[in-house]
Amino acid sequence: MDLSAALKRFYKSVDIMEDKGGFRVTLDGRQLKSPAKRSLLLPTKSLAEKLAEEWDAQEEHIYPLTMPMMGLASTAVDRIGQLRDGVIEQIAKYAETDLICYWTDTPEDLAQRQAETWTPYLEWVKQRVNVELKTQTGILHVQQPKESIIRFTDIITNFNDWELAGLSSATHCTGSLVLGLALIEGHIDSHKAFEDSQVDETYQIEQWGEDWEATERREVLRKDLASVSTWISLLND
Asked: With left for phi above 0 and alpha for psi between -120 and 50, is residue 175 left, alpha or beta?
């Protein structure tokens, strides 16, 4: 990491305090704020304790990439809190190009693997939220029913800003709104979300091996999904 670009640790003590409607993290008695200087009133004590733990773990310099919960909290306050409607629309759009709706026809063993992995999710989302999605073989765009997109939008709208931060990250990581919802709602864990979003990539690795860039990229996705899982757990604690 580039030490010249890192902010030096400017505080000694990290604590949490209860406030009206939630909890706050304090650095040397001063309330922690978001990168945009907005108030960070956290909804649960467990989340506040985890953020405090991240800040306390910083040593001589502060590295934001080592604080995933702080990153998600900042997203909830600085992005979703200010641009909620746009974020909801952006997340819902994933349903129009959802990963699990685009299957291959060749090679046959990959096609079978996709079907075995993704069909249960299509059945789950139909049963869970009454949304039916069409699948497409090949790269041509499949037009999803307008009613399905509207239904997804209604579902997403019911999430609060904190939950939306997790859903947005999970959907982006997997390329699938369905997988994102399955993770957020506890239908699957982060390991399965990763594995089932990487069916094509895993197949290619099995055939041709894995290069270091792919390994690094997959590890980042794995960690990000694990962070989302932790985030949701802390919100519900």
From this structure: left
Percent of the chain having pLDDT more than 70? 98
Is-cis flag, bond preceding 68, omega within 30?
A: no
Are 196 and 5 in contact, with CB atoms under 8 Å apart? Answer: no
Picking from 84, 87, 81, 89, the residue whose alpha carbon sits closest to that of residue 40 is 81
pTM over 0.70: yes
Domain boundaries, the chain: 3-68, 84-236
**What residues contact 226, with CB distance under 8 A and at least 6 apart?**
190, 191
Pair 214, 205: CB distance under 8 Å = yes
Architecture of the structural domain at 84-236: Orthogonal Bundle (1.10)
Token look-up 């909290």 returns 73
